[in-house]
């Protein structure tokens, strides 16, 4: 299964096909350690200038969907 990873060292985000229980991998850019972007609070992507009717906090994956959703309103 393909997961999103974010490098701790260079902050680059990339996708990699890894087993579900593998939580980290080598960054293809700097060879540093990259962590899986979980649906957990510590790794959640929180765009502070966005809000939806359901929640202000969502995962990176949801955030990518929201960016394409014309019904999502940008907070002022
Ligand atoms: Zn890196």
Helix content: 10-25%
Q: What is the makeup of the main sheet?
A: 4 strands, antiparallel
Structural class, by secondary structure, is: alpha+beta
What fraction of the residues are assigned to beta strands by DSSP?
15-25%
Query: Which strand order do you get reading across the main beta sheet?
Result: 2-1-4-3
* C-alpha end-to-end distance: 37 Å
Shape: elongated
Low-confidence stretches: none
Give the bound compounds: zinc ion
- What is the string of helix and strand elements? EEEEH
Computed over alpha carbons, the radius of gyration is 14 Å
Helix count from the secondary structure assignment = 1
Average of the residue pLDDT scores: 77
Number of strands: 4
What keywords describe this structure?
single chain; 76 residues; alpha+beta; four-stranded antiparallel beta sheet; binds zinc ion
Secondary structure elements and their pairing?
Elements: E1 2-7, E2 13-17, E3 24-26, E4 33-36, H1 60-68
Antiparallel strand pairs: 1-2, 1-4, 3-4
Bound molecules: zinc ion.
Question: Can you walk through the features of this model?
Answer:
With 76 residues, this protein is an alpha+beta fold. It has a domain at 2-36. 12% of the residues lie in helices and 24% in strands. It has one helix at 60-68; strands at 2-7, 13-17, 24-26, 33-36. A four-stranded antiparallel beta sheet has the order 2-1-4-3, with no helix packed on it. A hairpin with a 5-residue loop joins strand 1 (2-7) and strand 2 (13-17). The protein is elongated, with a radius of gyration of 14 Å. The N and C termini lie far apart (37 Å). The mean pLDDT is 77. Residues 7, 9-10, 12, 27, 29-30, 32 line the site of zinc ion (ZN).
């Amino acid at each position: 299964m393909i997961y999103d990873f974010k490098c701790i060292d260079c902050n680059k985000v990339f996708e990699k096909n890894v087993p579900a229980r593998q939580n980290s991998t080598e960054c293809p850019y700097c060879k540093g350690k990259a962590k899986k972007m979980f649906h957990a609070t510590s790794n959640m992507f929180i765009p502070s200038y966005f809000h939806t009717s359901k929640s202000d906090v969502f995962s990176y994956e949801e955030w990518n969907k929201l960016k394409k959703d014309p019904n999502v309103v940008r907070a002022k």
